[in-house]
Amino acid sequence: METEEKYFSFVVKTDFHGSHHRFDQCGIVMYLDAENWLKGSVEYENEHFQHLGSVVTNHGYSDWATTEISSDIKTMWYRFSRREDDYCIECSQDGIHFSQMRICHMWEGAGRIRFGIYACSPEESSFTAVFTDMKLMDCVWKAHDGQQPD
Q1: What angle (nearest 5°) sits at the alpha carbon of residue 8, between those of residues 7 and 11?
Q2: Least confident of 3-12, 34-43, 46-55, 125-134
Q3: Buried b (16+ CB within 10 A) or exposed e, 64-103
Q4: How far apart are CA 83 and CA 144, in angstroms?
Q5: What pLDDT was estimated at residue 33?
Q6: How far apart are CA 57 and CA 92, in angstroms?
Q7: Organism's domain of life (predicted)?
Q8: Which of 12, 22, 40, 58 is positioned for an S-S bond with 89, CB 3.0–4.6 A?
Q9: Closest CA to 28 of 117, 99, 114
């Protein structure tokens, strides 16, 4: 999707039961260009664990944040929210209770952006990722008490 809307949230449920090879992944992405982008996803590692994580890339410099989760988890909800040029990614296993994964500023992210879903198998693999329950809504990520917009 493409938008100039400054305040919104986007929710999606991902199902990746077929992921079985290292680096199989699916989730959400905000892409401006090769030097400026943001993603949140589950990335399969092995039969014991996978990585739930996010990557922020500003001006070509990437910052990764990951945590290990069981490889038995095969569905994940994501909520992506925008407040002008600040962004929040949250995850949930039930689509109701969301936990913050990342809050970040995108230096080039104040104007028109492209965002949505993604899946990839960067090594010699393939799997089916299913995306359902997509919803675009008013921003549910509220400003901190006393914080004015930029």
Answers
A1: 160
A2: 125-134
A3: eebeebebeeebbbbbbbbbebbbbbbbbeeeeebeebbe
A4: 12
A5: 98
A6: 23
A7: Bacteria
A8: 40
A9: 117
Q: What distance in Å separates the CA atoms of residue 104 and residue 73, rounded to the nearest whole number?
A: 26
Candidates 125, 101, 89, 106; CA nearest to 12 is 89
Q: How many CA atoms lie within 13 A of 55 on its CB side?
A: 19
SS3 117: strand
pTM of model > 0.85: yes
Q: Are 68 and 50 in contact (CB under 8 A)?
A: yes
CA distance 46 to 138: 37
For residue 38, the SS3 value is strand
DSSP letters along 43-85, please? EE-SSSEEEEEEEEEETTEEEEEEEEEETT--EEEEEEEEETT
Tokens representing residue 68 in the block: 């290990």
Maximum Cα–Cα distance across the chain:
50
What pLDDT does 122 receive?
85
Res 80 pLDDT > 90:
yes
> What is the Cα–Cα distance from 39 to 61, expressed in whole angstroms?
14
